[in-house]
Design brief:
The complex is a heterodimer of chains A (66) and B (616).
Chain A: E1 2-8, H1 12-20, E2 28-34, E3 41-45, E4 48-52, H2 54-57, E5 60-64
Antiparallel strand pairs in A: 1-2, 1-5, 2-3, 3-4
Chain B: E1 2-6, H1 13-21, E2 26-29, E3 36-41, E4 52-55, H2 67-77, E5 83-88, H3 93-106, E6 110-114, H4 117-122, H5 129-136, E7 140-142, H6 151-160, H7 176-190, H8 195-212, H9 217-258, H10 263-280, H11 283-299, H12 301-314, H13 323-328, H14 333-339, H15 346-355, H16 364-375, H17 382-409, E8 420-422, H18 430-464, H19 478-481, H20 483-490, H21 492-495, H22 502-510, H23 517-525, H24 533-541, H25 555-567, H26 572-582, H27 585-612
Parallel strand pairs in B: 1-4, 1-5, 5-6, 6-7
Antiparallel strand pairs in B: 2-3, 3-4
The chains are: A alpha+beta (66), B mainly alpha (616).
């Protein structure tokens, strides 16, 4: 499933770390491997693979891309 | 001249560091923190220059968010180096350029190294290097971390670096959004390859991840790999550990045979050599564990393993990064404590270090064997087997409970993140694995070794002084009249609530050398026939009585001892490593006192409780 990042929410440190990893507004991502029981999400960006905890992933406000 | 390697995690810094320094590396603890960095001298085959190379912890920017990132920032801020070697992964360049731009603004003389040249060539990725050179105005080198290609050019570049009297602009505030924007603009100038080719770089990695990150198969492969890893450590290390031990026994026997029979000879043979043995016996286990772990890390799998296990671990306040030390604790707490260095969150590192001694290490096995053998004497073997399995499970629950409790009480200034890059799968280079494992092993020998050695010598002195005189002590053994034996006799009232006489108490004290020493000490004190092993000792223990004729060793006492050994921190090697890893005698002492105090209290409650319910 492909998404576009619409906004980032959460603590300042968390948002900064997301940005450092390339997760900025308008970035396109693909959610590849959601681990069960609200485990980490593995996402593919144009720059590579990232692993995010569920609550870290929830800081990304996403819009599905059709 | 001093160079500091700076770069994001997994950018190839440590591989480059190993190429540059060979095996000269030493581990340095940043003052006031528990974070290590490596420091070494340029290997002699690269030239006669005495360049010092510092490998700093990986960071994504110069706005630190964890203790290890803080160390990199401080190393730069405190001008610990004359120049910076900035190591960037060209396949992750858009992200890594943010750090590059921030480092550039500090004003250090700079060299940029793009690692993973082999991947660029293999995947036919083209970079406009002139765009990078014109932005950073510094020499730029492409290296192949796997085979060492491009290193000679880099070394000659290092030799040409002028030593500049720096006017650093360290206090400059960074605007992350601006740096990201600049980084992206620069990236678009640098990268000339079509995005489809970039996807090709990730093609085989994405295929492998369909297995390794699958919601079900991912867990199955994770447990299979970890099972293979730790059984390999056990099977490969055990014969080597036996070999090391027998070498020291041989050395001890040679000394006894060739030197005059004197106290000095005994001290050298039993005190010094045995103490050396207590350090070096761990070397095979540490080397093999870190060799295999470095292999998993270098291949890119360890980051996936952290992702897989993060959720279950987060329930007890740990992250996936704590899994390896946690599991290693079942083999031995010594390498497990060393493996906590890979945990970036200080709070999590602290919690992991606190709970590792609770995991049932292999040294507890002979003790459990004796105690369960006594309780289930002449009963079917499956009964003690099942209880043993429960003991291991219980130790996991105990450690999880302790982690959960500690997490509630310990506050952290920095948040704990999992979010991380998952690197491309690669085949690790044997030479790099060997160097990484050797550096860890060397660090154990030089840092924890002296502490273990000194504590072992003191224990030997306590067990062997004052000296046994056959004319005066005809009915007593050396251990009985030793300071340790005398202390046991004085402390008998303390051991009595656990149901133990002074001999059992001395056994517990002697077990601080190593838990399994408990069994051999009881054999000596109760004059059991050593050749008959556990069976002889159990039969002897079944007959030992108090002055009033009642039996000392009963099932309730043995259950109390089991609980005691499950919780107590009875291992001087663990204490020694804890002191060095935490850089705190205070913490190690608190851990020692608290765990042994709790173990004692629980053992007393179990023994007295079982007796109250009529269990012998």
């Amino acid at each position: 499933m492909h998404y576009k990042i619409k906004a980032l929410k959460g603590s300042l440190d968390l948002i900064d770390r997301l940005k450092e990893l390339g997760l900025v507004i308008d970035q396109t991502i693909e959610v590849l491997h959601p681990m069960p029981f609200q485990g980490p999400r593995v996402i593919l960006t144009t720059q590579g693979l990232l692993s995010l905890r569920f609550d870290e992933f929830e800081c990304l406000q996403l819009e599905p891309i059709k | 001249m001093k160079f500091i390697l700076v770069g994001p995690p997994n950018s190839g810094k440590s591989t480059l560091y190993n190429w540059l320094t060979g095996s000269s590396a030493k581990v340095v603890n940043y003052p006031g923190s528990t974070v290590d960095y490596m420091s070494g001298i340029l290997a002699p085959h690269w030239g006669s220059e005495k360049f010092e190379i510092i490998d700093s912890p990986g960071t994504y920017s110069l706005q630190p968010k964890s203790e290890d990132e803080e160390v990199t920032y401080k190393l730069l801020k405190e001008k610990k180096a004359d120049a910076v070697i900035l190591v960037l992964d060209p396949t992750q360049l858009s992200r890594h350029l943010v750090l590059a731009l921030q480092v550039q603004r500090l004003g250090y003389p700079l060299i940029i190294v793009l690692s993973m040249k082999d991947l660029l060539n293999k995947q036919n990725i083209r970079l406009q290097l002139s765009a990078l050179e014109s932005q950073f105005q510094c020499p730029l080198y492409l290296i192949d971390g796997q085979l060492g290609g491009g290193l000679e050019a880099l070394i000659s570049g290092l030799k040409k670096m002028p030593k500049v009297d720096q006017d650093l602009r360290i206090h400059e505030a960074f605007d992350l959004d601006q740096d990201i924007k600049l980084g992206q603009e620069l990236y678009e100038k640098v990268i000339t390859t079509h995005s489809q080719q970039l996807e090709k770089v990730w093609g085989s990695t994405l295929k492998l991840d369909r297995l390794f990150l699958h919601p079900i198969l991912g867990y199955l492969s994770f447990f299979s790999i970890m099972f293979l890893l730790f059984t390999s450590v056990y099977w490969l290390a055990t014969p080597l550990m036996d070999y090391v031990e027998s070498l020291f026994v041989l050395l001890s026997e040679l000394l006894l045979a060739h030197l005059p029979d004197s106290l000095v000879t005994q001290f050298l043979s039993d005190g010094i050599i045995t103490s050396f043995a207590s350090v070096f016996v761990f070397v095979p286990q540490i080397f093999i564990l870190f060799f295999l772990l470095s292999g998993l890390e270098g291949s890119g799998y360890l980051a996936r393993a952290a992702t897989i296990i993060d959720r279950p671990f987060s329930m007890i306040g740990l992250s996936g990064r704590s899994f390896v030390p946690f599991l290693s604790g079942y083999a031995c707490a010594v390498p497990a404590l060393m493996a906590t260095r890979n945990i970036s969150s200080p709070k999590e590192k602290w919690v992991a270090r606190m709970i590792i001694p609770l995991l049932s290490c292999s040294a507890r096995l002979p003790v459990y064997g004796l105690l369960l053998g006594f309780i289930f004497w002449k009963e079917p073997a499956w009964k003690p087997g099942v209880i043993l399995a429960f003991l291991y499970l219980f130790s996991m629950l105990l450690a999880s409970l302790a982690a959960g409790l500690l997490n509630r009480f310990v506050k952290s200034e920095k948040p704990s993140f999992l979010m991380m890059e998952l690197p491309i799968y690669r085949r690790p280079l044997l030479k790099t694995l060997f160097l990484q494992a050797w550096n860890k092993t060397k660090s154990f020998i030089t840092r924890a070794g002296p502490v273990i050695f000194v504590l072992s010598v003191f224990l030997w002195l306590g067990m062997n002084f004052p000296r046994h005189n056959p004319e005066i002590h005809a009915e007593q053994t050396q251990l009985e009249i030793s300071y340790l034996g005398l202390a046991g006799q004085k402390l008998e009232p303390l051991f009595e609530p656990m149901g133990l006489d002074w001999r059992g108490g001395v056994g517990l004290i002697a077990a601080f050398a190593a838990r399994e020493v408990f069994v051999s000490t009881l054999s000596v004190l109760y004059k059991s026939d050593e050749e008959s092993g556990d069976t002889g000792l159990i039969e002897k223990l079944q007959t030992v009585k108090w002055a009033d004729g009642s039996l000392i060793y009963t099932p309730s006492v043995m259950w109390g001892l089991i609980i005691f050994f499950m919780i107590a921190l009875q291992c001087l090697s663990t204490v020694g490593v804890m002191v060095k890893e935490s850089q705190s005698w205070k913490l190690a002492t608190v851990q020692l006192v608290v765990y042994n105090g709790i173990a004692y209290a629980f053992a007393v409650v179990i023994v007295q409780g079982l007796r109250a319910f009529g269990v012998a």
